[in-house]
Amino acid sequence: CLTCSGRASSGTGRCATLARAWILGCFHRRSRSRRLRRVSDASLDSMLSREWLETNGLGSYASGTTSGAATRRYHGLLVAALEPPTRRHVLLSRVDDEIVVGGMPFPLCTNVYRDVVYPEGYRSIDHFEARPVATWLFRAGGVEVERRVWMPQGRQTTVITYRIRAGRGSGGEVKLSLRPMVSFRSFHALSSEREGIDAAMAV
User: Fold this and answer.
1) Who contacts 21 (Cβ-Cβ below 8 Å, separation ≥6)?
2) Which residues contact 105 (CB under 8 A, 6 or more apart)?
3) Can you tell me the distance from the alpha carbon of 138 to that of 127, in angstroms, rounded to the nearest whole number?
4) pLDDT, tens digit, for every residue of 67-88?
5) CA dist., res. 73 & res. 25, Å (int)
6) Of 139, 145, 180, 181, which is closest to residue 162 (Cα–Cα)?
7) In terms of CB atoms within 10 Å, which of 50, 59, 64, 83 comes out highest?
8) Residue 163 CB-density burial (10 A; 0-12 exposed, 13-18 middle, 19+ buried)
9) How many CA atoms lie within 13 A of 67 on its CB side?
């Protein structure tokens, strides 16, 4: 479990907890089938034009495209209302995730830059469903991976779960690698890499 938290002081010096992002990796077999929208044959442009949204009832949200890429400054996995329901700030921009099967990496995430798309995790998306929560089903390296993103009502929290099961031909150990991209900016603003930031985190 990885937790990102922040604190800020108001003009009177009063401190308040801003938000927490929990990333949970779950590895187990799963036999129950789900009804998901097949997107494996969809183009990247089509997937970038379709968005999903999760909210917590406090003015905070998580949002992105079905490809997994963020295409607008308002996208993010934890966009928290610091003074509910106002002062929304992006606290967790995205998570670069991949599975490693028998030593070979298979990205699940997708990032779109000006002249290139990298990595191309969208190519492994088999199904997507926006309800009851945003859910992706990936097939890569002979492995099926289900990723779900949701927000508990009344809590400044985003939960991301992974369910991994080995399929035929996976042939080896399966590992999940997560790289969270943490930010702290107004959701109206843009930011770039900054040196000197303490990148320590608790897992």
Assistant:
1) 2, 3, 4, 77, 78, 91, 92, 157, 158, 180
2) 98, 99, 177
3) 7
4) 999 999 999 999 999 999 999 9
5) 27
6) 145
7) 64
8) middle
9) 24
Express each pLDDT in 83-95 by its tens digit: 999 999 999 999 9
Residue type present at position 33: S
Buried b (16+ CB within 10 A) or exposed e, 169-180: ebeeebebebeb
Number of Cβ atoms within 10 Å of the Cβ of 29: 8
Q: Where are the alpha helices (DSSP H) in 5-66?
A: 44-48
**Backbone dihedral angles phi then psi of residue 44, each to the nearest 5 degrees:** -60, -40
Most distant CA pair in the chain: distance in Å? 61
Q: Is the pLDDT assigned to residue 171 strictly greater than 50?
A: yes
What is the rounded end-to-end Cα distance, in angstroms, of the chain?
5
Residues 6+ apart with CB under 8 A from 116: none
For 98-120, what is each residue's pLDDT tens digit? 999 988 999 999 999 989 999 99
Which residues does 133 contact at the CB level (< 8 Å), separation at least 6? 54, 148, 149, 150
Residue recorded with tokens 């670069």: 96
Torsion angle defined by CA atoms of residues 57, 158, 135 and 180, in that order, rounded to the nearest 10 degrees:
150
Distance of alpha carbon 144 from alpha carbon 154, whole angstroms: 32
Q: Which structure tokens are listed for 81?
A: 């209302």
Structure tokens at 125: 């998306």
Residue 48 backbone dihedrals phi, psi, to 5 degrees: -70, -25
